[in-house]
């Protein structure tokens, strides 16, 4: 009997499938999302998941291939606007897109190989959210049928939009009223990230701090000082017409690009949108930043990253106007795609470990200033002994649909949970607390795995809590590569890193100081040993353990300001 399969990528497709379940009674559903699995299970539908076909080791080769693709595309799409190469502003977005598509091409090839289907059903609508609608025909030579479905439109919050308009009007007014002698400091950091630095800067009445981004965010108060949010919306100019003419020429060139056939259609569509729409948005942002720079309305960019499009565009535009920029490191250096190339004038690093890694990725040493990590100042000498036998596992809760190197797929998230649960079943005195994040696309997975293994001695926290109190309540911390491992170490807690050997290059932790485990036997041994990182390890990672990082950073910023 010939087999037909249907690919289900989200809950809306799952609901459409169930609505027409009789029509697809002999078709094998394959799920690509935990939410889809839950819906199908509740309806007693038999199905398979992408995990049945996925080889995580194949992603490593995909990532190497993608870097070559990026190099080729950067040479072919060489379009400048006001001395800024527009293509390189979007390297992270494009890298994610290509790796994402190639990952799912590989999975589809394995599905076809194992199932040998006679026909594939794929859901499709006018949005760009589907994985397979643009690539299935490039991989599968037999019949493909597309099924229309709809996604309910999201509700627009008119009140929020109105408040955003008022907020931006106020921030522009405050910026306009600022004097020439004021230091106008633009930062992308939320209130919670570098509060002590912001507070110190605001003590000087000459310093006016503006939080900024190109999407709606919130203003806030730091003690009694108001930090307004400035939303960049772009600015038109006459030379945009010349740019649009160049874009039309490049759009024609896209058809002649030599691209992997399996993702050719989807990548060319993506590139056309990138050039026709996103390049124009970037150019308008360049115009707005240039306008503010010429009016002496920006003195310094103080960002927590400069690899994403918005930050990179602002920093490079300010550089053209000789206005300084600083990036304050806020996370561990896991992979170069998330930290380099550095466009800012200075990168304020946690410690020597981060500096060495940044230099190995091509960052000029003269840009790197070691200051320590201001967000960890409050942790120094604040460790307390846990009152109960508690182990905290901090989940790497990035979106599993993304394939940034070092991120865990759903299959690997499940594997880690299984290892922890099976190990702790042999240590019944320990209670496990699993810390996830709100909105994690795998929320509910720990409970599901625990039920299948009959493991009950655990609690899931998926909301914001005081992490210091949480870690201080614990005997031991388990992480993969998150910053909570470093935070726990500063609180004098034993830390264990659980991962996979092929992800070792992306680990930020020295295995001599923080044990790296890959199976139940190793985890059990590491829990019993309770190894604590040394003082020299902490100093290598966060410089001096003196709670003065914020002070050093503030002093450096003051030297840069006019």
What would you say this structure looks like, in words?
The protein has 562 residues and is an alpha/beta fold. Strand 1, helix 1 and strand 2 form a beta-alpha-beta unit. The chain has two domains: 270 residues, Rossmann fold (3-Layer(aba) Sandwich), CATH 3.40.50; 162 residues, Rossmann fold (3-Layer(aba) Sandwich), CATH 3.40.50.2000. The chain starts with a strand and ends with a helix. 40% of the residues lie in helices and 15% in strands.
Oligomer: single chain
Mean pLDDT: 93
**Low-confidence parts, pLDDT < 50 over ≥5 residues?**
none
- The CATH architecture classification of the largest domain is 3-Layer(aba) Sandwich
Q: Give the percentage of residues in beta strands.
A: 15-25%
A few lines on this structure:
This protein is an alpha/beta fold and 562 residues long.
Features:
Rossmann fold, alpha/beta, globular, 562 residues, six-stranded parallel β-sheet
Write the layout of secondary structure elements.
Elements: E1 4-8, H1 11-19, E2 27-31, H2 34-42, E3 48-49, H3 58-76, E4 80-81, E5 84-85, H4 91-115, E6 119-124, H5 136-139, E7 144-148, H6 158-177, E8 183-187, H7 195-202, E9 207-213, E10 220-222, E11 225-227, E12 229-231, H8 240-254, H9 264-294, E13 300-303, H10 309-320, E14 325-328, E15 346-349, H11 352-360, E16 368-370, E17 390-394, H12 410-424, E18 431-435, H13 445-452, E19 458-461, H14 467-472, E20 476-479, H15 484-490, E21 495-498, E22 516-517, H16 520-529, H17 535-542, H18 549-560
Parallel strand pairs: 1-2, 1-6, 2-3, 6-7, 8-9, 8-13, 9-12, 13-14, 14-15, 15-16, 17-18, 17-20, 18-19, 20-21, 21-22
Antiparallel strand pairs: 4-5, 10-11
């Amino acid at each position: 009997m010939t087999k037909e399969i249907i690919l289900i990528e989200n809950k809306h497709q799952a609901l459409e499938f169930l609505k027409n379940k009789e029509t697809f009674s002999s078709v094998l559903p394959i799920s690509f999302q935990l939410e889809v699995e839950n819906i199908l299970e509740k309806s007693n539908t038999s199905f398979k998941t992408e995990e049945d076909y996925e080889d995580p080791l194949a992603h490593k080769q995909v990532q190497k291939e993608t870097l070559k693709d990026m190099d080729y595309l950067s040479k072919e799409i060489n379009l400048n606007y006001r001395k800024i190469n527009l293509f390189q502003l979007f390297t992270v977005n494009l890298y994610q897109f290509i790796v994402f598509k190639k990952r799912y091409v590989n999975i589809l090839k394995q599905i076809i190989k194992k199932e040998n289907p006679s026909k594939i059903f794929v859901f499709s609508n006018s949005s760009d959210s589907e994985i397979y609608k643009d690539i299935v025909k490039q991989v599968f030579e037999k019949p493909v049928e597309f099924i229309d479905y709809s996604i309910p439109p999201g509700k627009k919050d008119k009140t929020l939009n109105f408040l955003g308009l008022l907020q931006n009007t106020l921030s522009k007014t405050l910026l306009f009223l600022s004097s020439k002698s004021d230091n106008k400091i633009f930062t992308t950091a939320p209130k919670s990230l570098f509060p002590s630095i912001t507070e110190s800067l605001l003590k000087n009445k000459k310093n006016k701090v503006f939080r900024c981004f190109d999407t709606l965010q919130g203003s806030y108060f730091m003690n009694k000082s108001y930090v307004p949010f400035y939303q960049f919306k772009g600015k038109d100019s006459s030379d945009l017409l010349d740019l649009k003419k160049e874009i039309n020429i490049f759009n024609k060139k896209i058809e002649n690009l030599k691209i992997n056939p399996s993702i050719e259609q989807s990548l060319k569509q993506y590139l056309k949108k990138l050039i026709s729409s996103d390049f124009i948005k970037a150019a308008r942002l360049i115009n707005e930043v240039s306008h503010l720079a010429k009016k002496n309305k920006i003195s310094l960019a103080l960002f927590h990253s400069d690899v994403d499009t918005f930050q990179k565009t602002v920093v490079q535009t300010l550089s053209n106007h000789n206005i300084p920029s600083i990036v304050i490191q806020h996370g561990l250096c896991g992979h170069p795609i998330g930290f380099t190339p550095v466009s800012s004038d200075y990168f304020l690093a946690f410690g020597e470990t981060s500096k060495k890694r940044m230099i190995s990725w091509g960052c000029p040493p003269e840009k790197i200033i070691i200051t320590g990590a201001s967000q960890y100042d409050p942790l120094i000498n604040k460790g307390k002994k846990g009152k109960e036998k508690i182990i905290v596992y901090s989940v790497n809760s990035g979106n599993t649909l993304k394939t940034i190197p070092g991120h865990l797929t759903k299959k690997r998230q499940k594997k880690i949970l299984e290892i922890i649960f099976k190990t702790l079943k042999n240590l019944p005195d320990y209670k496990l607390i699993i810390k996830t994040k709100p909105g994690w696309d795998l929320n509910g997975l720990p409970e599901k795995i625990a039920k299948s293994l009959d493991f009950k001695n655990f609690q899931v926290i998926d909301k914001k809590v005081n992490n210091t109190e949480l870690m201080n309540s614990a005997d031991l911390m388990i992480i993969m590569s998150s910053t909570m491992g470093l935070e726990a170490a500063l609180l004098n807690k034993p830390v264990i890193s659980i991962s996979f050997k092929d992800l070792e290059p992306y680990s930020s932790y020295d295995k001599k100081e923080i044990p790296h485990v890959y199976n139940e036997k190793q985890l059990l041994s590491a829990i019993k040993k309770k190894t604590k990182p040394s003082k020299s390890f902490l100093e290598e990672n966060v410089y001096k353990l003196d709670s003065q990082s914020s002070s050093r950073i503030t002093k450096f910023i003051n030297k840069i300001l006019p």
